[in-house]
Design a protein that fits this description.
Elements (H helix, E strand, L loop, with lengths): L4 H9 L14 H14 L5 H16 L3 H10 L6 H10 L3 H15 L2 H16 L2 H12 L1 H45 L1
Helix pairs in contact: 1-9, 2-7, 2-8, 3-6, 4-5, 8-9
Length: about 190
């Protein structure tokens, strides 16, 4: 299955009622139910795919401010001479080279299995009761539940595209209105 299965699960479980958690660690039996639900939905087996996806997302976040980040990082190297700081700056100028190294280290060192446990378990414990988890597991074992897991990523992607297409003309009109307002201010 593909890496967008998380969206499927989130969308499917989003229709259920919030049960409110205690903030405490889940009981062993509840933790086992959460583990089973994450396995059935495919989330538990997606650590490697999530790692690759998040390394890319993190690089997209870094890229716009990369030059400033590197400039700051180099300036923090106070034990280097000015000449060595300039050489280091030159070595760090190539974002693509940095990105390749970053991705390699990210995939090697970030343990998404542990992240899934540390993020998903408390959330599922907080939002779902034991009874709700049991019902979700039963549902995801049915043909309809398996189909929901299978098709929800594509459905959500198509819906997202449809919403973006519907919003685009309105956004363009708003931009044009703002530009016209600002242009009118030039005359004043």
């Amino acid at each position: 299955m593909n890496s967008r299965r998380i969206v499927s699960l989130a969308a499917a479980v989003g229709i259920l009622t919030w049960s409110g958690g205690t903030g405490a660690e889940p009981s062993e039996s509840k933790e086992n139910l959460i583990r089973e639900l994450l396995a059935i939905s495919g989330v538990a087996g997606m650590a490697e795919q999530m790692s690759a996806q998040y390394s890319y997302v993190e690089l997209l976040r870094i890229q716009p401010s990369y030059p400033q980040m590197m400039q700051f990082a180099v300036s923090e190297q106070t034990d280097l001479s000015e000449e060595d700081r300039q050489r280091l700056t030159a070595r760090l100028e190539n974002f693509d080279q940095f990105a390749e190294r970053f991705r390699g280290l990210f995939l090697e060192r970030v343990d998404f299995s542990k992240i899934i446990d540390s993020v998903y378990y408390p959330l599922y414990d907080s939002y779902f009761s034991v009874n709700e988890l049991e019902k979700m597991i039963v549902f995801y074992r049915t043909p309809a539940g398996r189909k929901a897991i299978e098709v929800m990523p594509a459905l959500m992607q198509e819906a997202s595209r449809g919403v973006a297409e519907a919003i685009q003309p309105q956004a363009v009109a708003l931009i044009q209105e703002i530009v016209a307002e600002e242009r009118a201010q030039l005359v004043d």
